[in-house]
Design goal:
mainly alpha; 142 residues
Length: 142
């Protein structure tokens, strides 16, 4: 009795997971289309730089960069991409928003903490693959 209900629940779980992946890919596609539309206005933004709007132009490009990173994060599903998006978002905020000294200090500390997290608190996808390969080799030796 329990195995039959567990099988049904497992099949439903797989269906929901696959549906969520397709929705996530669709959202990533929408973000990508938005970025392409965003870049189609780039020549007009270049004309604005000549008028002294460099900060707006930089804001424009960094928005596109964060959007690209979010789309990549939705496609890759790893911690590396999440931390990268957070680093880009905080860095964009530091560059665009002209904060006071305390705000800049908090932003710099946030970026340093994110780099420390990426370096010391989790293994990247490459490191995990290397460890798995090593563990498989050890298992074959036994």
């Amino acid at each position: 009795m329990h195995t039959k209900s567990y099988e049904i629940l497992h099949k439903l779980q797989i269906i929901f997971f696959r549906l969520a992946l397709w929705i996530e890919l669709f959202v990533a596609l929408l973000i990508f289309v938005g970025i392409v539309i965003h870049f189609s206005r780039l020549p007009a933004e270049l004309g604005e730089i000549m008028g002294g709007g460099f900060n707006e132009f930089l804001h424009y490009l960094l928005d596109a960069l964060v959007g690209i990173e979010v789309a990549m994060m939705l496609c890759r599903h790893d911690l590396d991409s999440i931390v990268e998006v957070m680093i880009f978002a905080v860095t964009k905020s530091l560059i665009i928003n002209h904060e006071n000294s305390i705000g800049i200090l908090i932003g710099v500390v946030a970026v340093a903490v994110l780099f420390a997290i990426r370096k010391f608190l989790f293994l990247s996808a490459v490191d995990l693959a290397e460890r798995k390969k090593h563990a498989d080799y050890i298992q074959r030796e036994k």
